[in-house]
Structures are given as C-alpha cells and as structure tokens.
Amino acid sequence: MVRPEVIRRRIEAVSENLEVLERLARYDEDEFLADPEHYGSAERFLQLALEALLDMGSHVIADNGLGSVNQGRDIPRLFREHGYIDSALEEKWLRMIGFRNILVHAYLQLDRRQVYQVLCNDLADIRALQRTFASFL
C-alpha cells in the first residue's frame, strides 16, 4: 500500500518548485537568458520537480507491486499499463525524463532556450502528473 506521507511530501515539494518556476517564466526570453541566476534557478528547480515525480512513481510501483523498474523510463510505461495515465501523458513524462537526464548528465551541452521553452510550455504537464499522484492519497 502506498504510504501517504511519502507522496504528500513530494507533492508539496513539486508545488514549491512550480511556484518558483512559474515566477521565472514571467521573464521575457532575453531577460531570462541574460541572468545566470534565472536560468540556473530554473534548471535546478526543474530537476527537483522531475526527481520528485520519479520518486513518487517508483514508490507507487514498488508498494503496489506493479512491476520492475530498471530505468526511469519504465515508470511512465507501468503507469500507463495499469491505467493511471493515458498514452499522451506517458509520452510527455518520457520527454520530461529525457530532459531531466540532460539537466543531470549533459548540463554542459544544455540549450538554455530549451529551459525557457519548458518553463513557458510544459509546467502544466508537471501539474497533471502531480494530480495523478494526489489520487493516491
């Protein structure tokens, strides 16, 4: 059974991260790209939000015996297979995981314009996954 406190703490962390990210998304692109504090903060808060989603996914899968997770990309597939998300949200989550991997492992090649585009266009997808996890409470 899913432990509510595990999910609740991570949902709260995602909310806190999204608050900061939504503030950063208010800057125009030139202003955002010109300030290392803006884009550095965005990169870190995106990473933290995406990590929390993966942590919650792993927790739900393990506690409910939904299957094996060999890599992060297994989590969205198992969620779709068990009816927790549809294929569209699965695909969005897979893209988020790919972006998280760039933030963590390929940060020297990171295109900060892509970070800005994520801020402006993809935060709603994080919120959608957050609502999915709220359903386990």
Automatic annotation (TrEMBL):
Domain of life: Bacteria
One Pfam family hit: HepT-like
Transmembrane spans: none
SUPFAM superfamilies assigned: Nucleotidyltransferase substrate binding subunit/domain
Keywords: Hydrolase, Nuclease, Toxin-antitoxin system
GO molecular function ontology, one term from the record: hydrolase activity
Keyword Nucleotide-binding applies: no
Gene Ontology annotations for the cellular component aspect, listed alphabetically: toxin-antitoxin complex
Key word rRNA-binding present: no
Family from the record: Belongs to the HepT RNase toxin family.
Protein name: DUF86 domain-containing protein
Organism of origin: Thioalkalivibrio halophilus
Source organism phylogeny: Bacteria, Pseudomonadati, Pseudomonadota, Gammaproteobacteria, Chromatiales
